[in-house]
Specification:
By secondary structure, the protein is mainly alpha-helical. It has one domain. The protein contains seven helices and two strands. A two-stranded antiparallel ribbon has the order 1-2. A hairpin with a 5-residue loop joins strand 1 and strand 2. The model has no long low-confidence stretch (mean pLDDT 94).
Length: 138
């Protein structure tokens, strides 16, 4: 279930913009990547922060999925055009879950949030397909 609050923060066009920008970033020569890379870095960070502020409110289950995807996209951005310190950080970033466990690495953190979406009743068929493709859902 998605609330209007989540839709305002993360309209579907944002996910499409990030996906297209990542594909463009990958195809560009390294000297042309910085501007798109900086834009993506800012966009991903801002959206993740805004969604984290509302994710625990009733009706905002989809926020977990979007946060998970933002962590995945951040990992991809870093793999394509990140600095060496970003690359090292992407595999060493630690997230302490509210349940008391520790998750390490952007991909694992992204998987944690996507699984949380599913565990909280998330049922959008497209999200489930993506979760399956990422190996979060068997």
């Amino acid at each position: 279930m998605n609330s209007d609050e989540v839709d305002v923060i993360f309209p579907r066009a944002v996910g499409a913009e990030i996906d297209i920008s990542l594909r463009t970033l990958q195809d560009l020569p390294e000297n042309l990547r910085p501007r798109i890379n900086d834009h993506l870095k800012t966009l991903i960070s801002e959206k993740r922060t805004a969604l984290a502020a509302v994710m625990n409110r009733p009706g905002n289950t989809d926020a977990y999925f979007h946060i998970g995807m933002l962590f995945m996209w951040e990992m991809i951005r870093i793999n394509i055009a990140g600095t060496m310190p970003e690359r090292m950080s992407s595999v060493n970033t630690v997230y302490q879950t509210p349940e008391g466990s520790t998750v390490v690495g952007l991909a694992a953190i992204g998987s944690y949030f996507i699984k949380k979406y599913l565990d909280n009743g998330g049922s959008d068929p497209a999200c489930i397909t993506i979760a399956r493709g990422l190996g979060v859902l068997k």
